[in-house]
Amino acid sequence: MMTSLSAQRGYATLVVSLILLVAITLITLYGARTSLMTQRILGNDKRATESFVEAERGLDEGAMFISRNIRDLSNAWVTETRWVSCGTSIELPCGDGSQNIFDANFVYYQDPDDNSKNYVAELSDDEPRRVYLVARCQDEDPPDGTCDHVGPGAYTIDPDDHDDEDMRGSLIHTIATGTSDDGTGSATIRQSHYIYQLVASSPASPLTIDAASNVSGSFEIVTNPDGGGTGVPVSMWSDQPIDVGTAITTCEVGEYELNDGSCPGTTPESLTADGDAGIDIVGEANPFPADMFDYVFGIPTEEYNQVKDQATAAGHLLTDCSTLDTASNGLYWIEGACDLKIEIGSSAGPVLLVIADGQLDINAGAEVYGLVYAFDVPPEDDAGDIKLNGGALIRGGFVADRKPTTNGAMTIYYDADLLEKLVDNESLAASGRVPGSWVDYHE
What we know:
elongated, 25 strands, alpha/beta, membrane, transmembrane helix, transmembrane, seven-stranded antiparallel β-sheet, PilX_N_dom, twelve-stranded parallel β-sheet, 25% strand
């Protein structure tokens, strides 16, 4: 009996041990499977992240490429046949691999040196990403596969039914692909960019200052007759008090011309004279632009590099004004002292002169045709002085983030037609991303 009982206990122990062994084995196998699945998930996530990082980097590079080459979109690139009709293609960049997205009314960017490359090879020829550009062509279904008119009127706010008459509101699309480090993961994303004029609108006043002002010397201003609305003249505009002194005169253009190029020294012929400020002197204004850079360019101060990039792309990023003359036109960004003593720009080709923090001296003999903007680069603690001296002329407008010093017979002549040429200048264009236009092709 004792032997039989011991045997039974041995069998029971064996059975329990076998059950535990099987259970442990199953748990181990399950754990290994779970661990393998976790590793695969982590690997997939890693590859997806790597590919999306590359694709997002491609979008950023595409945005910079557009910004730096806006001037060539409608001119050099058309001549070089860089734009090719999408037709009915379902392949990138005109489709997503299964269907056509951009039809024959759209064109894609083609490498000028190798027409087998339908992407921006300058950015991504040997990288784990590709950057593509697509725009609307002004020609309906270009018969020869090329686009003759990419530029004003070529893009649309709504690609389906809204045509623009100029580049404002224009769209250009960037498609970017990215691959993971091991080449097994991929991502394709798209974002649209709008093209807009760099100068938002003509300034309302010949002299606009975001600081307290006191004017000395024989300072003359030919007013904007409609600066405050139809028939409401504005000559000086500031959110701070304005002391006109005793020698400043302001007048309408008619009185200026009738008086042989000078404002009459008395009222009512002049709006402001003999220390008597007229209705055209608007100090302590409310409302007044909270951001002067946004007032001039339509974008906040923090994004000033967008404008600076345009000057850089045009070769107009300068350390001083010594090379400027009557042949100068368009945007110039000056990162240093600017000492003007000669004629700059012209009525046919006005300048947009941005003085970024530097000292500005406009001296006798200087004639500036266009808009001068003395800009305080953030953090606005080391900007140079502004001196507007006698014998100088600004025909257009002057805007400043800080107080200028005026001496002598300085004249600012508000010229609406000349300023409008800056607003309408197609070469003074910039780009921005369209909010909400980001698309993931794999969703």
